[in-house]
Amino acid sequence: MSTEETTPPTTAELAQAALVAIAFKEFVAGICDPHIKANQEHIKSTPSLRSTTAAFNGQLAVTFTESRKKPSFFVADQSAFLDYADDQGEALFVVNPAFEKAMLTNAVWDPETETVFNKRTGEPIPGLGYNPGGEVISVSPTWTEGGRAAARARMEELFGPAMKALPMIAPADDRQQSDPVPEPER
Q1: How many domains does the chain have?
Q2: How many CB atoms within 10 Å of residue 77?
Q3: Which tens digits make up the pLDDT trace of 126-144?
Q4: DSSP designation for 166
Q5: Residue 123 falls within a domain, yes or no?
Q6: Is the residue at 27 inside a domain?
Q7: Residue of 25, 120, 145, 171 with fewest CB within 10 Å of its CB?
Q8: Structural domain that includes position 168
Q9: Measuring CA to CA, which residue among 163, 174, 178 is closest to residue 39?
């Protein structure tokens, strides 16, 4: 057994690896996205077409299908609907939205008792929770002047010819337009 300890990467090494990964991802997306978008636009702009398919090595590899939003209903006039529900005997007690907004505005957190209080009255406000925030929700790159261009140039140098040939990887027979998937009968 080896007793050698592996040294974790340095901050600079992690940042450098992230730079290469982001640059490669953006480079590939720049080549691939136009092909994806062209297929999406073709489906959207052809009224009788809901799907396209593609094969790889003679086998169906993918189906691109348009999703359509189903019809739905929503309450457009809260007051009128509440009156209707009341006439039907279906109205329930609801919190006045202005009161809710005022309570949220006047809320203060007491970390010792872990209770939310009204800062104007000092009374506890039952039912309100407290989210302290601070959780990291994303990490985004910020490029320096010329950094993106330099990274892209390196990606082009290293991977350009191979990645630009991406649409040509499939054998010629598989690149032929496949038949669209027929609309399901209704």
Answers
A1: 1
A2: 9
A3: 888 888 776 646 566 667 7
A4: G
A5: no
A6: yes
A7: 145
A8: 11-67+146-175
A9: 178
